[in-house]
Every structure is written in structure tokens, then in C-alpha cells.
Amino acid sequence: MHCPMLIELGHFALILAFGVAIVQMIVPLVGAHRGNAGWMAVAEPAATVQFLLTGFAFAVLTWGFVTSDFSLQLVYLNSHTDKPMIYKITGVWGNHEGSMLLWVLILTLFGALAAWFGDGLPARLRARVLAVQAAIAVAFFAFVIFTSNPFLRLEVPPLNGRDLNPLLQDPGLAFHPPFLYLGYVGLSMSFSFAVAALIEGRVDAAWGRWVRPWTLAAWMFLTVGIALGSWWAYYELGWGGFWFWDPVENASFMPWLIAAALLHSAIVVEKREALKSWTILLAILAFGFSLLGAFIVRSGVLTSVHAFANDPERGMLILIILAIFLGGALTLFAVRAGAMESKGVFSTVSRESALILNNILLAVSSFVVFIGTIWPLVAELLFDRTLSVGPPFFDAAFTPFMVALAIVLPLGSILAWKRGTLGRAAKPLLGWLILAVALAGLAYAIQSGNSALGPIGVALGVWVVGGAVADLWMRSGREGLADRLRRMRRLPRADWGKATAHIGMGVTIFGIAAMLAWQKEDIRVAEVGDRWDVGQFSFQLDNVRQERGPNYLTTLAEISIWRGTREVTTLEPEKRFYQVANMPTTEAAIANGILRDLYVVIGDPQEGGGWAVRVYVKPFANWIWGGAILMALGGCLSLSDRRLRVGAAAAKKPTAKAVPAQ
User: Fold this and answer.
1) Can you tell me the distance from the alpha carbon of 194 to that of 207, in angstroms, rounded to the nearest whole number?
2) % of the chain exceeding 70 in pLDDT
3) Is 358 helix (H, G, I), strand (E, B) or coil?
4) Residue 651 pLDDT grade (very low, low, confident, very high; cuts 50, 70, 90)
5) 433-437, 587-591, 595-599, 658-662: which has the minimum mean pLDDT?
6) Which of 517, 414, 413 is nearest to 456 (CA)?
7) Cα gap 76→64, rounded to integer Å
8) Are 562 and 537 in contact (CB under 8 A)?
9) Helix (H, G, I), strand (E, B), or coil: what is residue 616?
């Protein structure tokens, strides 16, 4: 099953892809400058070959994991013959070197997609976009080949491996990194479009239309990746939370916020040819935050439960890549910003102004997360002080911006372009406002305690969802109900996508507020046979037994849950011990429901007898991830709208003449 020659071919393919990327970086760029069509045409086949070679290298590495080829150092360090097959495969990216190869594979995939589906782009712009994308690939190919080679061999292959980190042996986290990388790396296309536009010195409505699908796809993948990571943390780490403001969590959240701002800003460029400089800057910063995330995850300078590596030297190289691309792009931006003249004029009360406010809130909230994430490092380097910035800071500093964003969102969606009136925009929202306030009052009246978080979450959630529904209803015309429903079905998918994403945001806001405000928690030492009450439920520890899994030993508890005299369910939380990795993990048991989750965790045996048991009743927990799914679905719907496809027919004619020769 093992083929040493195949491994060498994979390594050679990676080096060859590096060479192709260098050619793609230089030749089309020079061709675009000289107006040489032949040189510009090199970009498309080069992008395809680069992707195919990288794909072959990645397939070879995957084969090494599947066949447990321990002559590969990476397989030896991150796999084991007893590991289930799915985790052998996901072990490919469950480490620094393999994950960087996945990063480069996705980078070349996006470049190839731009080559395959970019026929509607002007030839010079397409050549420059692909050249900039290749320049990013060159930097990361060099990083992988010279500092993080996944094809290093062992002279004497061992009989077995050291296994993958047990925390990564989970379906949620197995697919979490690929989706995050699709988002992180997808923002490189927005960056490439921005730099290409700066080189040409021209941004127009067509550019805004072209950059939106790439940004939308990246944002959508980031949404799924963040949701999967949050879901994994919720049930795998055993502490009952879905977000801890961990540096690695923040590393993915910052580009998500900037990408959301970029999406809304690109709409203004497309519709009104305004905010050009700001949109270019957002495209640069979005990818800059992605590179910053790679630095945080891989350098070890900030402590995190799910960092990939603890290697400051390689982290410094990523920081250098970040400085080169971000610094170069910002320098070019400073030189060319004067050429990005906006044509659209609009009043203070207009959809353009609402989108600007939306952008400010998203950008500032991202900056707040950035400061809180990076400040411990700055304090240690400059002031020699060890600081910890945790949830209290982020909750207090970040939440007001999200509350303001939720308030503005429905009004901004309904306001007219160029000049609007608040009274006219607010009229269709009046019923939803009354409903939101009424439900918030009801929640405050029936809840125990005086926390305002739950009622505020109810009001904001209903307000945002209602705003999205009202927006769709307004677009359906003013005829009878049957005609309006017929028109709604015929609305463009982009309109449905926007409404679905906004509804998802409202659902997530409500889920977060409801769970945090109304959850019940109980931590105790329990003997077998003990029974205790938490909220409306009774929990009973029925049994604790030892079992053996495929590659671990487990302590498994049986906890029955009752509501009055009726048994609701029996849950089996586990405490696993992976012998090869010499590491324990906690496996929470959860009874999921639409209205609440019942969440139990078994801990260690206690000296005086009994077991540590942690129990939560979490209302509306699944609404958090349900809202994230709706947001991602909204992105899919918008992306499927033919008007947003790269090179849409409507954009071809006017844009072919719009770009001057350089």
C-alpha cells in the first residue's frame, strides 16, 4: 500500500506548482502593462495547472494518512493505525504543515475559479487579478516548502504513530478548519480585485458587481466555519458555553465582521458608484485580518485551546508575509486613493447613509475585538506586564455596537436610495416595533430576576426578523394578497438571500440573549442513585461504568432526566482517556430541543466518594446555530442569483469599454 515514489511525486508537484505560480505572478502583470494579449493569456492556464499540481500533492498526503504511511514524519506525528478512518483523513489538516497545504490548495482553487469563470472580466483586469492571486500563492508556497514541508521523511519508519490530538477527533472540528480556510482564503480574491483595481486606477459599478460574489462566498464559508467551531466548543469542551472570546475564535470573527461590511459597501459601489476608496480599503483589511488570524493560530504568541502550532519563528514569517502584502496594498492605496472619485450624491437620510452607518458599526466592532485580542501581547512586549482580556471586556465593549446595528438594520433596508424619509421607511415597521416591545415586556414580566438581557434580546430579534419580512412584503407591490404572494415568489434570489441572512441574524441575536439570560446551572458531587432538581427538571445519576472505545478508555455515566413523574430521557456523558496521546477529553451529553437543551457532564471521581457532575438547562440554545445556518443559506441564495455571477452578461458590454489601456 505504501509507495515511496508517490510521496516524492507529491513533493515534486508542490515545487512545480511553486514555479508555475512565479510565472503567473510575473508574465500576465507585465503583459497587462504592455497590452500584450499573449502574455496576459498565460494567467488562465497557469492558474489551472497550479491548482491541479497542488491538488495532486494534497491527494498524495491524504493517501499517506489513509494508508498509515509512517515513513512520512507528519503521518507519524498525527496519526495511528487504530484511529477511525474519518479522523485519519481529517488528520491531514489537523496539524500545522497539513493545514498550510490545505490553505495553499484553497488559494489555488480560488485562482482557478477566477480563471474559469472570469470571461466577463476585461482582459487587463483579469490578468492583474490572477497575477496578484499568484503573488499570494508564491509567498505561501515558499512558506510551506521551506519552513513547513509536509513531505519530510523518516529514515527508519516506526511501527505506529503518535495519534492526532484527541480534541480534534470530532466530526464538528473535523470539518471546521476547511470551511474557515475557504472563508479566510476566499477573501484573498477580494484583495486581488482591490489591488488590481488600484494598479489600474479605476473602480466602477462593474467592479463592485464582480467583487461581491467572491466576498459573499468567503463570508458564507466563514459563517459556517465559525458556527461549526462554536458548536464543537459547546458540546466537546464540557464547559457549556458557545463562545469564550478566545484569540483563535476572534481570529475568525474579525475578518467575518469586515467581510460583512465589505459586502454592504460593495452594494453602494455597484448601485451608486460611491464609497469606492472605503470599499477598496475594506477589501485590503479583510484579507489582512485573515493573515493576522493565521499568525495568531500558528505563532503561539497568544494562548488558545485550539491553536495549531507554538512556533514563534514560523509565526514571524507569516507576520512578514502580512507586512509585505498589507503594507504594499496600503501604500498603493495611498498613492491611488485620489483617483477613486465617487459619483453618487446622497442625502443624510438615505440607504447609502444607512449602509455607511452599518459599515462604521461593523468596522469599529471588529477594531474592538482586535484591540482586546492583541492588547495582552502589546502589554507584554512594551510594558512587560502580563494581562488577560476576557469575556467581561468584550461583552461590555462589543455588545453596544451589535445592539445599534440590529436597531439600524431594518430601517436601512427599507430606506430609499439617494434621498429617503424616516417616516415613510418606519411606517411598514410600526407593527413589528409594537410586537417587539410587547414581547419584550411579556418576557420581562414572566422571567425570574431582573435581568434585562432576555427582554432586550427578544425585542431586537423580533425587530430584525420583522424588518426582513417587511422589506420583502414592500417589494411585492400594493395589490391584493394573492398578487403580492405571486410577486414575492418572483423576487430575485438576491432579495430573498438578503432577507434570509437578516432573519438568521435576528434568530441568532435572540438565541444568544435568551440562553445567556435564562439558563440554569448546577454543579455538584453526586453518588449513584442521587436525584436533584434544576429548573423544571429532575436529574438522577443511575450508573457509572468503564468501557473501551476504538482508541480510548471511557468513564460513562447514565443520568436519567425527569419532569414531574414523567421520564424525559436518559443521557450518557463520558470522560475519555486517549492512551496513545496520554490525554483526557470531556464528552458532554445533550438532549437537544427546539425550546431548550438539557446538558450534562460527568467529571472526575471525588476523594470522599461520588462523581463531579455538571448540569445545565439551556433555553433556545439551538437557535444560535439555526440563525447561523439561515445566514449561510441567505448567502447561498444570493450567490445563486445570476446577477451576482462573475462575468454576468449584463456587465460584459459596458465594462469592456470602462477600463482604459495602461
Assistant:
1) 9
2) 93
3) helix
4) very low
5) 658-662
6) 517
7) 10
8) yes
9) strand
Backbone angles phi, psi at 160, to 5 degrees: -150, 170
DSSP 509-576: HHHHHHHHHH-EEEEEEE-TT-EEEETTEEEEEEEEEEEE-SS-EEEEEEEEEEETTEEEEEE--EEE
Name which of 137, 139, 99, 105 is nearest 321 in CA terms.
Answer: 139
Cell representation of residue 616: 445545565
- Segment 516-525 mean pLDDT: 92
**Rounded Cα gap, residues 497 and 325, in angstroms:** 33
pLDDT at 111 over 90: yes
Helix (H) or strand (E) holding 611: strand 611-619
Cell (9 digits) for 155: 529514515
Residue 599 is inside which H or E element, if any?
strand 596-605
Residues 6+ apart with CB under 8 A from 587: 235, 236, 238, 554, 573, 574, 575, 576
d(CA 367, CA 581): 38
Q: How far apart are CA 128 and CA 609, in angstroms?
A: 69
Average pLDDT, the chain: 88
Strand partners, 602: 613
Residue type (1 letter), 79: S
What whole-number distance in Å separates Cα of residue 624 and Cα of residue 461? 11
Write out the DSSP string of 238-271. Answer: SS--S----HHHHHHHHHHHHHHHHHHHHHHHHH
pLDDT at 322 exceeding the cut of 60: yes
Residue type, 53: L
- pLDDT in the model for residue 569: 94
Specify the pTM: 0.90
Please state, in angstroms and rounded to a whole number, the distance separating the CA atoms of residues 270 and 368. 29
In terms of Cβ atoms closer than 10 Å to its own Cβ (0-12, 13-18, 19+), residue 41 is: middle
Task: Find residue 560's DSSP bridge partners.
Answer: 540, 570
The cell numbers describing 161, all together, are 504513530
Q: How far apart are CA 510 and CA 179, in angstroms?
A: 25
C-alpha of 407 from chain center: 24
Q: Is 348 strand, coil or helix?
A: coil
Query: What pLDDT does 332 receive?
Result: 93
Task: Show the 3-state SS of 406-465.
Answer: HHHHHHHHHCCCCCCCHHHHHHHHHHHHHHHHHHHHHHHHHCCCCCCHHHHHHHHHHHHH
pLDDT score for 450: 62
What HEC string does 164-223 produce?
CCHHHCCHHHHHHHHHHHHHHHHHHHHHHHHHHHHHHCCCCHHHHHHHHHHHHHHHHHHH
Grid cell 508542490 in the structure block, residue: 14
List, for residues 359-398, the tens digit of each pLDDT value. Answer: 999 999 999 999 998 888 778 777 777 777 888 899 999 9
H or E element that contains 587: strand 583-587
Model confidence at 301, pLDDT cuts 50, 70, 90, reads low
Q: Is a pLDDT exceeding 80 seen at residue 182?
A: yes
- Helices (H) and strands (E) counted in the chain, each on its own, are 21, 10
CATH number of 1-169: 1.20.120
Rg of the chain on CA atoms, in Å: 27
* 141 — pLDDT class (breaks 50, 70, 90): very high
